[in-house]
Specification:
Blueprint lengths: L2 H11 L6 H12 L1 H13 L1 H15 L13 H24 L3 H8 L2 H8 L3 H16 L4 H18 L1
Helix pairs in contact: 3-5, 3-9, 4-5, 4-8, 5-6, 8-9
Amino acid sequence: MSVVTKVILNADEELRYPSSGELNSIQDFLQTGEQRVRIAGVLAENEKRIVQEASKQLWKKRPDFIAPGGNAYGDKQRALCLRDYGWYLRLITYGVLAGDKEPIEKIGLIGVREMYNSLGVPVPGMAESIRCLKNASLSLLSQEDGVAAAPYFDYIIQSMS
């Protein structure tokens, strides 16, 4: 939920106008809007490149994932992994645009550990894959934009660790 929506809902629930502190938080949110849109645009426009680079980094670090018996062994399993990488990258853009980690939590992290465990996918391996996704993504962003985007990746990594 965006800062603007939170402020409005909180004020309405209490039958009051937004406080000066809440208005300042909206102003701060709006001032970073151009940067958040720019970051989301770079990530979306480069999804294929980011996913390819992240998977290359992961397979190099963890060749056992693509070896016989690994969770990404075979074309079908590997394609499913790459699909998940794209899905997580999209979740990150939602968080960046909202300026909040709540969309990531609500859309993508509730039950993720249970799901991967039930599928026999090692959750620490998924955390490592998000680290690779982060590295590949941040390499395309300016330092300032990278600093703004990194916490959204870290949030997913922490949730899977």
